[in-house]
Specification:
5 helices; mainly alpha; Four Helix Bundle (Hemerythrin (Met), subunit A); 151 residues
C-alpha cells in the first residue's frame, strides 16, 4: 500500500468508528431515557444532556478525519509510506479510543438516567460520572492530533 492509501484509510477509520461509537453509546442512553420519559416527561431536559454525551466521540473522529485530509493536502503527492502509516495509526488511535469510551460512556449514562429518574437532583453529579469516561476519548484525540501534526 502506498502512503496516500494508508492515510485515507486512517481518516476513514477515525470517521467510521467515531460515528459508530457515538451511535452505540447514544443508543444505550437514549433507550433508557425513552423509558423514563414515559413516566416522567418533565425530566426531558436533564435526560437529553446525559443521553447526548456519548455523541462527542463522533465529533472527535470527524475532526481527526478532517485533519488527516488537510495533512494529505499539505503533503501533496509526496506522501511517503512512513507518513501514510503515521496517519493510519493516528486514525486507529482515535477510532479505538472512541469506540471503547463511547460504548462504556453510554452504559454509564444509562445508569445515570436511572438515578435521575429516582432523584432528579443528581443530574449534575451524573454528568460528572459520565464525563469521566470521556477523558479517554480526549486522550485519544490529543495523541491523534500530535501524530498528525508530526507526520
Amino acid at each position: 500500500m502506498d502512503g496516500t492509501t494508508l492515510a485515507y484509510t486512517g481518516a476513514a477509520l477515525a470517521a467510521i468508528f467515531g460515528a459508530l461509537a457515538s451511535s452505540i453509546g447514544m443508543y444505550f442512553a437514549g433507550a433508557k431515557a425513552a423509558g423514563v420519559l414515559g413516566e416522567k416527561p418533565e425530566l426531558f431536559g436533564k435526560l437529553l444532556v446525559i443521553a447526548a454525551l456519548p455523541g462527542s466521540q463522533g465529533i472527535y473522529g470527524l475532526l481527526i478525519a478532517l485533519m488527516t485530509f488537510k495533512s494529505i493536502g499539505d503533503l501533496g503527492a509526496e506522501i511517503t509510506t512512513t507518513s501514510g502509516a503515521i496517519l493510519l495509526l493516528a486514525g486507529c488511535v482515535m477510532a479505538f479510543s472512541a469506540l471503547a469510551s463511547a460504548f462504556f460512556q453510554g452504559k454509564v449514562c444509562a445508569g445515570c438516567i436511572g438515578a435521575i429518574a429516582r432523584d432528579g437532583s443528581v443530574s449534575g453529579k451524573s454528568i460528572i460520572l459520565s464525563a469521566l469516561i470521556e477523558t479517554y476519548a480526549v486522550f485519544g484525540l490529543i495523541v491523534s492530533i500530535l501524530m498528525i501534526t508530526n507526520a
